[in-house]
Amino acid sequence: MDHQEAELRPVTAAPGTRPRVxxxxxxxxxxxxxxxxxxxxxxxxTLDAVAAEAHASKATLYRRWLGKADLVVDAIAxxxxxxxxxxxxxxxxxxxxxxxxCNAGGFTDDVPLSVLAGLMSAMHHDxxxxxxxxxxxxxxxxxxxxxxxxxxxxxxxxxxxxxIQLLADVLPGMVLHRRLIMGGSVDDDFIxxxxxxxxxxxxxxxHPVSSRLTTS
Length: 216
Hints:
Distance between the termini: 58 Å
Radius of gyration: 20 Å
Structural class: mainly alpha
Shape: elongated
Oligomer: single chain
Helix content: 55-70%
Strand content: under 5%
Largest sheet: none
């Protein structure tokens, strides 16, 4: 057994738990998975290929991840290229939305379009991938967004009769349409246009919005 393989061997865990590969070694495996996703796409990617790319054993991957779907979603959700978003409470709905959308882990992060597009296609015929993507990639981001909208509602920035769940779909829905359907770029300016032109008016629909569009 060489030194690199020894680094991968997780510590013995209690019965019923899954040992973890942690720290830099885990990041190397996740980054290797992202590279292969870009080159091969989801359907052609195999755990054998990931093991070879990361200089790991296939058995180690299975001890850490349930299967390909879990590994792939971990890779795009937790690797250095796509950190999880941070919940920021600035006291302003607009500032909060701009922060979670444009900071690290937000909607403007450079996740390769080919990777996300390939996953969307594969999810139509892979229930495990669909489950993992929703639980590990979407859920943390939607949870942050829901917290922002809930606080704004309590501050009176969202009218009581507005459907907050529907409002939560606006920003990610328009971003995914722009990136995956239209093939366009998503930057801070595009995010601001959605927030100022669509989301804020929808949130406060019974009052004039012109004064709020200039709020920073």
